[in-house]
Structure formats: structure tokens, C-alpha cells
């Protein structure tokens, strides 16, 4: 069961192996100069499942990962990964955490087989069958140099390496960014059908809603460094409703519309996307003069875009 | 760790091999023209600088490529302690530099040792190590500049930059290089952590990081300030070196014609003969003698601080001194074939120390002057000074005589001494030096009818804070009695603030700089100088700067909210070191930590 939790007392620094949460931040704040990127973020991700983090550019996703992995200092608050203070991660902690980012930074000058052998020696829990299963989905030859791989092949190779390490936690930071449709699909299928994912918790950051929809057990929405939502994707979709109403003239003042995320007028009809509004919203529209009201289902993409677009600066 | 080292080796091996081949080609080309192992210090230092530059570029490029956030994350997010990752990368750097720089040198040395008659001493086999250490110092400084905190990390380049100025020689020089490399490696390892923007927290890494930064700031302030001051002075048209020098000053004395200088030195003479001498001097020739070399070669030094080879043109043999055999080793100038050894005297005895070759077969062996006699094919003693004295310049002809300057006295011999030796032609006279040899600017000899007047002008190094300049005139009669007949103080020409700039800016850093430069340095009698006490006004200025720095540091550490112990430490450092520590504080803590 995934839920938003209230703040808890600080967990002990040295209790990493049996930690309840793979990721835990309390009041986490990061500012660059005068700009706040993470704003007192309280986040707890329990073990197991795939946690998808979405947010507009600059919402603080990558900053959050960098702080969690100890590569960036926080301006305030605490961050823990697998129960360990992120500033004090040990080599063993890093063995337990896989990380794949959008650059798929791998040594271009080395052969695929050499890189694989190197990783195999580095990670005692290396799972060769998992590696072979994932890499088998790609046309990658061990004698090829990494620099000769296509972007999709690099992504697949990187994923195979990360999964074969046998991580308890796998962080994927926009791994499909820049991939074509075929490569994206191959990547997603590799991830979904790998046995390795059953044994680890995955934190997946992406802008691709179809990926989130397919993968995520838990949807985390960050907005301007704050936690806006944490729930299963379907629960989140259920919170957002799309009403189409035939309202005369301009319709009600948007400021007076409860839970309004987005309003558009298309072909004379008003489209309202609202958050946490029950059937009573239809009564509100009727009171505003609406004659016909249709309550449409909302897809994840539409719901997320609406919530992220709510406070987004737009041309006036 | 080994895998990471191999990965880096694979990455740069083609580059290393290419550089190695080019390097070997250059060495082979120049090796055909000159004896590479007998080059003067300037050439050797230029080559060492090129090696350090090669290392610096490798360090900058290698670490620069990892310094992008995602690459840095991928490099360090692995089940290895960051220190081991740093050591693996640095190990790869050392391996690459060994292949590119050391291997060609070893090939050259081996070729010279076994395929030519050129001298290859044990000390020369240390040159590849010294080259590797120079390159590693550059490499590690470049690596640290990339990995460390950008605001101050590049300043640690001061450590390799100071190496050419170290006064250590031989194994001592190697030890200094090892220390610098170890220091830089320590800095690199401590900077190698996931968040490289954090400054060191623990006292030892903090001190070892701050010290070179402060030293660099000190030298930058010192040099930049001096350049600005000198330029401004030159532009004003009153700089003593760039206009008519002030009367009675050191610059005027150093530039004056010999007779004019002696006449000026006699101006205040109370000797009744002074007017007559002045007349005689003004129509006579003066012979100028200056210290010729500061350093004496030390056995085992890596490079030749002074030339130690000469040519026997008559027999077409090139003689090169070997530190191993302590004799000269001959090589035919036409065929390059070995021509045997050449020691001292009839027995061919070993030299006690490496000699200084003055050309034309004349050599200084500490207090002895020896000469190669091509007719008998031997090196023969020509003159010997009293025990404990060291010859400080080449013989200077003075009419039918020759002057020999030692660290204690000036001697006049008959010119025949160079042919027949001092047994037949002992010293005509000995005039003791009125000051330390390290301060002597020049000596001038004027021959009178019945005696010689000798002028000693002191003040060498005075523009940089050495002792006050003065001139002394001695009259040395035919019996060898030396009597002071004239003296005058010379003006310093340069203001106190300029002369003592290295002291008032930061007395502590001045001491650190000198301690570093003189670590493991051999003692040499030729640099002995009088101590120049720091004037009270300079001490007062230094104290004021330190107190001002202390106050500013206290205020700044409070503003940036440093924790108590750190705050006290920085404040005390600013009080003890002054401006360099204050500026380094600002570089280390530019703003409130929480931001």
C-alpha cells in the first residue's frame, strides 16, 4: 500500500539493510543562489514496486537523485537511501543501488565484452542470465566498441548492466530520452519482462506518460520542488475529472471554479479539468447555466499534464 | 580498481604510444647533435617543464572528461571507495606518462651507455624518474584543478611550478619531487568524492589544501604588486634602472666605470694621499671582478649546475667529467671512440668533488685551480688557496697579473701562475673581503705606482631585501699589506616597501616559501650573505596587515556562519599569515554554507 505519510522521527544513520523505505527525505531543500529547486520535500518510498516520478523540467527530479546518491549537498533537511544518510553512502551501499541516466555514459573506447567482464568482477551478485536475457533483445556483439552502438543499443546495454548487478534499488532517470519509438519499446519490454525487476525497487523518472502508465505502481508528481501527488496512477486519474459543458457566454469566473486545473473553450463547449471534485461539480456547472454536461474519463497523460500545467507560466 | 586502471590505459594507449614515438624521435635527433646528458640547467628545466606540461594536459583532459555531472556520477557510483577510484585513474596516468616519457628516455640512456663513449653516470639513470615525477606533478595538479573546488583548486599548480626553483640537488631534488607528488596525490584523493564542491572538513586535508592555495596567493600578490609598482615607476620616468641612476646609489655603482667608482669611493678618504690617488686612478685602467658562479657542482646532482666538460682541440678529444669515476672521460671528437680517463696530476687521482670548467682547460676544484696541459696530456694543479676557501670566479687578467676571487679574499698572482703554478709564482697579495661573498656586487683593481687600490662594492640582492649596500677601498702595497683607505655607504635606490615586500606582505608565508625552496638544499659557501634585519616600520606594517586580516576573518567567518572551531582556526590563520589567508578564506567560504 503506497500512501503519503506524515513526517516521522529521523531514522538511525546505520540501519541500511532492513530499512523500511528505500528513499526517505524529510524537509529536503536545495537552493541554487536565490532559486529553490527542492522545497522542504517529504518523500518516503517503500520497498518494492516501480515508483514513477514525473514533473515539469526544473521540478527538481534530477536534483533529488543527485542528493539521494550523495553527489550534491542539500541546503536543508535530510535524505536517506536504503536507510543510510545520503552523504555517507558506502561502497557497499552503492553496490546495492543501480543507476541509469539519459546519457548512458559508458566508456566509448571499450568493447562491450570488456565492459561486461569488468562489471561482472565489480559486482559479486552479478546475474549473468539476467544480463544475457536483456542484452539478447538487442543486436549487440561483445566485440563491438561501445562507441559504435546506436543510442538504443547503448540504452539496452546500460540497462542490462544495471539489472545484472542485482541491485536492491534501481534508479532510472529518463532512460528513454532521445530514443526512437522502436528503441523505447525495446527498452520498456526489457525492463518489464526481466526477472531482475521483481527483486528490486525501481524509481523511474520520465516524461513519457505511456511508459508510466505501463510500468508504475506508484505515481509521484513533483512540482516546483514540492510533492504534489503520491498514489497509484489509477487513483490519481480518478482524482481528475473532465467535464464538458454547454455554458452560455463566458461561463463562470475561473477563479470561482472549485478544483480547477484547466479550462478550455472548444467549438463553443467549455472543457473543465478539475481535481478532487465529485458529482457535485456538475451541480456547480448547472448553477452557472450549463445546459448539457458530459463527464468524460481522463487518461494519465491528460491528468498529469493538467496538474503540471496548472501553475505553469504561459504567454499572456 | 585494476579494471579501472586498465580501462584508462585502453582509452589513452594509442595516444601514449604516439607521444612515445615522437618523443623518441626528438631525443634521437637531438642526441645526434649534442650530448643530452650534459646540457645546462636551463635546457634541462625547459625539458622538465615540457614534461610537466604534458602531464598537466593529460590530467586536465582525463579528469575534465569525467567532471561533467552525469559522467562523474557514473564514475563514482560504483562499489569502490572513491579513493581507490582516484588511485586507479592516477595509476593509469602514471603508466601512460611512463610509456610516453620514461621509456624513450630509458632507450636513449641505454643507447648512450652501451653504444657510445659518452658519459652515463648512475645519476643519469635517475633522470627518467625525475622526468616521471615532473610529469606526475603536472598531471596531479591538472587533475586536482579539474576535480577540486573550482574557486581555489587551480592554485595548487604552485606546487609543481615551484619545483624548478628548489635549491635541492640530486637525491634531494628527487625527494622534493616525491613530496610534491605525494602532496598532490593526497589532495586529489581527498577531493575525489561524490560531491566535489564540498571543501575538506577534517583539519589535515583542509590545512594541506589551504597551504598551497595561500602560498600561491602570496606569490601572485607579491609578483603582481611588484610588476605594477615597477611599471608605474618606469612610466613616471624616475626608475633607477630605467633612467639616470641616482647619485651615490647602488645602481650607479654597479654601472659605473671602474676608475669613476674608485674615485667616488675615495671622495671621503682622509688619507693624505687620496687626492694623488684620485688623479692617478682617473687616468688608469681598472679591472673588474665579479662573482662568476653561485653554485658549486655537487656529486650526484642530476644536471650539471655548471659546465664540467672541455675540449682538447690539439688531440681532438672531448673530455667530460664523470661523477662515478670522479675523473674526466675522453671521447674522440671525430670518431666518438673512447680515449680513456683523465684524473688529477701524474697519478690521475680522482677529484674530491666535481670541478667547474672555466674553458680552455682551466678548472676550479673548490679552493684549487687546475689546468689541462695538452702537451703532457694531464691535468695539473696551478694554485691552491688556503684550506676552507673556495674560488668564486674565473681568473681575471690584471695587466701582467691575474686576480683570483675567493669567498674570503681577493688574490693577485703573476699571470705566469696559470702556466707554472703557485709554487713558482706565489700570490703577490691577498686582500680580505670586507663583507660576505653573497653580497659582493663587484670588485675593481687599479694599479698605482707602488701599490694597488681595490674597491669592493656590496649590495647584490639589496633591491630584494639583502643587506645595506656600501663601498670599501683598500690599498694593498707591494708587501701585501691591505689597509682600508676609503669607505662610503651606497644608497639603496629602492624604497623600503619594495625591498621588503616579501616580508611585510606575509612574514609567515615568506618563511614557508624559503623553507620549501631550501629543503634538502646543500650548503654552498658562495651564497653566504649578511643577514638583513627587517626595519621596524616593515614589521609594523606586517603586524597591521595581520591584525586587519584577523579582524576581517573574524567578521567574515561570522557572516558565513562557520562552526566554532573552524571559525577560530581560520581567524587565527588569517592573523598569523595575513592577507593570503584572508583571501583564501573568501575562496573557501564565499557565502553562507546553507545557501
From TrEMBL, chain B:
Q: Which residues cross the membrane?
A: 12-30, 42-64, 85-110, 125-147, 168-192, 204-229, 538-556, 568-588
Domain of life where this protein originates: Bacteria
Sorted UniProt keywords? Membrane, Transmembrane, Transmembrane helix
Instruction: Quote the protein name from its UniProt record.
Output: Uncharacterized protein
Species of provenance: Sphingomonas parva
